[in-house]
Design brief:
The structure is a homodimer.
Chain A (H helix, E strand, L loop, with lengths): L8 H9 L5 H19 L2 E3 L2 H13 L12 E5 L26 H8 L3 E6 L33 H8 L5 E6 L5 H7 L2 E4 L19 E6 L2 H10 L17 E5 L11 H16 L3 E5 L8 H16 L1 H7 L5 H7 L7 H22 L4 E5 L19 H5 L4 E8 L5 E7 L5 H18 L7
Parallel strand pairs in A: 2-3, 2-4, 7-8, 7-9
Antiparallel strand pairs in A: 1-3, 4-6, 5-6, 5-10, 9-11, 10-11
Helix pairs in contact in A: 2-3, 5-6, 7-14, 9-11, 9-12
């Protein structure tokens, strides 16, 4: 039998159902995996094996007919999301060992549906910087090459799911904090439509951008989560076939973007070739010029909303805040309110237009990251390719399957119009089958 | 000497400064006032006199040169805003006695600046309904006539500040939950620009509408708060004079609004006459037709965001949720995502246009409420006149001074473009002097 820790959540659930696995045995297998791997990956900010096993035994006691749709699904929670039975420390010295007895709405929802909240995963400071050690960043390493970053800010969830320490992870995304670690760690990562899942109890950076993010090693697992979170499209759930589907492929470089590295450039080309080979039509597009200011607007929105978000901690412990966050509060860039409002309003005006563009295709395909995970841990990498979809509030899935020059995983982003999350997942399932089978990268056994 | 409880926060601070009053003596006076009045007004969801006096004594011990700008300012906190040393119960049976050890960002900011967090004030369920008893609503009464409602959802903060049980109160506003109790209780109420103050740790109903609200009995007190919360306009702080200023007066009824009651109609006429008599120019306006859909859009945004906001509690305790909140989660109105997005996007497109309209005037003057506070406690009154400014993200101040047919207070709203909060406060100071002196209503001595 496969070691239980290797199972996806859906596979583990099938084993719970047919009686071949208990939640306790599953949890033990995951904990064993963590104990073997943690000194290498450092993905956890808090993990109490005793608590995990206690909860697992409680779940095993629930009668089969009373089990929730997430029964026994182990979930790592990014440490900027409140959990009532574990500390939430934001990788900030201000919140060391802080443990308010409160679940974020997302965690409350998962628990109510039978999930096993496993532990807290590492994050960069308040999920708001791209900084690793020696500053305050997490010392989390990429499981596929510990000399490389797992990405950020959802460093721990990305690494833990990529390393089979847990099948599901929660991240957050304000620019690229969910999708980037998804690519770097070779897993599926989803940023759903903005505010389609409650972000109550999740640290605020930007109200208009912050989104809960989801990690898994299969599309089935993401589907489990979307259903529990009541994500419903307007359109009925119809089967999606690659053959005959039309995709948009973002040509690169876009005017405001850096050029992709060789790994991402090759992945984009190979991805398009594979889809064509399976009968899809690929149309190369560039984002029209009218959308070019979105890169500049994103910076202004972040600065303007960060100015508000970090004021309380600025008052209580300015000396323990990263300089970037201080610069927001002090409006170091001297952005005027007028500039901030123009950015806010113009981004809002772009959203229905970009939706209309996306609606012409099964999905838009673009890069998730510049290239494979860079070496070193000082910096968690660039989020520039993720920002546009975040400011547009669109759902994005990182699909793994490709590899870079050093054999590290590279994923591609598929993107749909707002509230087409379930559609995007159906597209991702079919695209994922192809990319995973023929893209050239496979998770180490 | 005036009994300390009658002082505004700014007056109390002057007395702390000249040594004529300690924070402890002030707190005792407020607690005495509460003990005399609480059986009538029922404004508090939680108040621990021992804790208040302990904190007051701690504040007294701080050396004068180390005192914060809000030193000793007593603040009632609406019971949907987290406080680390008091329960937060949302007037929901689900959260009875729930007390996570966490301060909302607003409370953290106030504490860090020396405020005395006094107690938790009553609210309707999750600040999301307009329902009083016998359903789950607070039994809070209007201090000026206990047979009447104090308004909602910020019932307790409105009543407590109106009744001089505390000089400052925090409310929240998603439609009219701050401004309406302001008018009903005869006090200043301010809804600042959306997201100009962090709403982290404040119950979420609608991310795009929820705003922290402020109550006080003087403009000086509101100014203290805006400064601590770093609300800075683009324009420098220049003196404002009524003479020569131009105001817009909303003519009523607007196409989508009910007609105002006789009290509000008289207040609008008298307010305009008074300002004219003091040398202001008044231009009557109606909102252009293109803005009329905002009333419909507001409902769709509330339904769409409420669908997300109450999902977690729906899973854990549906039987203890108000039917309105269940109807949101279940999307009883069958709104499509397309309708919800159109509402969201079109409201966004209106905001810069309404700003431009407001910028032609010192402020727009409109009704805060339909009329004086209605009798009974089953319903906290209509918020229809407040909704438009909330969906437009504009700052609003309720200015007291008028009275209705039964002698109850009535206020008027002054409104400015986004991020002109400090400007609006300067306007409110001068307008308030006139309305309070000549409007016809005065707080009972």
């Amino acid at each position: 039998m496969t070691e239980p820790f290797r199972l996806t959540a859906s596979q583990a659930q099938a084993a719970f159902k047919d009686g071949s696995l208990t939640v306790e045995a599953y949890a033990k297998s995951l904990l064993d995996r963590v104990s073997v791997r943690d000194s290498t990956t450092h993905a956890w900010a808090y993990l109490d094996p005793k608590l995990v096993l206690e909860r697992a035994r409680e779940l095993d006691k629930i009668l089969p007919e009373k089990r929730g749709p997430l029964h026994g699904v182990a979930i790592g929670v990014k440490d900027v999301i409140l959990t009532k039975d574990m500390p939430t420390q934001y990788n900030s010295p201000i919140y060391k060992d802080d443990a308010p007895k409160l679940d974020a709405a997302s965690v409350q929802t998962l628990r109510a549906n039978g999930a096993l909240i496993f532990g807290k995963t590492t994050t960069t400071e308040f999920a708001s910087t791209s900084v690793g050690p020696p500053y305050a960043g997490p010392k989390t390493a990429n499981p596929h090459d510990p000399s490389r970053t797992p990405g950020g800010s959802s460093s721990g969830s990305g690494a833990a799911v990529g390393d089979m320490q847990v099948p599901i992870g929660l991240g957050t995304q304000t620019v690229g904090s969910t999708i980037r670690p998804g690519s770097f760690n070779g897993i599926y990562a989803m940023k759903p439509t903005w505010n389609s899942i409650s972000r109550e109890g999740q640290k605020v950076y930007s109200l208009i951008l912050d989104t809960l993010g989801l990690y898994a090693r299969s599309v089935d697992d993401l589907k489990l989560l979307l259903d529990v979170f009541h994500l419903v499209d307007d359109e009925p759930e119809e089967e999606f076939a690659i053959k005959g589907a039309k995709f948009a492929l973002l040509t690169l470089p876009q005017p405001e973007w850096d050029a992709p590295g060789p790994g991402t450039a090759a992945a984009l080309k190979k991805g398009a070739d594979l889809l064509r080979a399976h009968g899809a039509e690929i149309e190369e597009i560039t984002l029209p010029d009218e959308f070019r200011p979105m890169y500049d607007y994103q910076l202004k929105v972040l600065a303007g909303e960060g100015r508000v978000a970090f004021l309380a901690d600025y008052y209580t412990a300015k000396d323990q805040l990263h300089p970037l966050l201080i610069s927001h509060v002090e409006n170091e860039k001297k952005y005027t309110r007028k500039e901030q409002l123009k950015a806010f309003d113009d981004l809002a005006a772009m959203r229905p237009k970009v939706d209309a563009l996306a609606d012409k295709y099964a999905a838009i395909i673009g890069p998730s990251v510049v290239d494979e995970a860079p070496t070193g841990h000082e910096n968690t990498g660039s989020a520039q390719f993720c920002g546009p979809w975040t400011v547009m509030h669109m759902p994005v899935v990182n699909i793994p399957g490709f590899k870079g020059e050093n054999g590290m995983p590279i994923g591609l982003s598929v993107v749909a119009a707002r509230y087409r999350d379930q559609h995007l997942l159906r597209v991702s399932r079919e695209v994922g089958k192809i990319f995973e089978a023929e893209g050239g990268w496979a998770r180490n056994p």
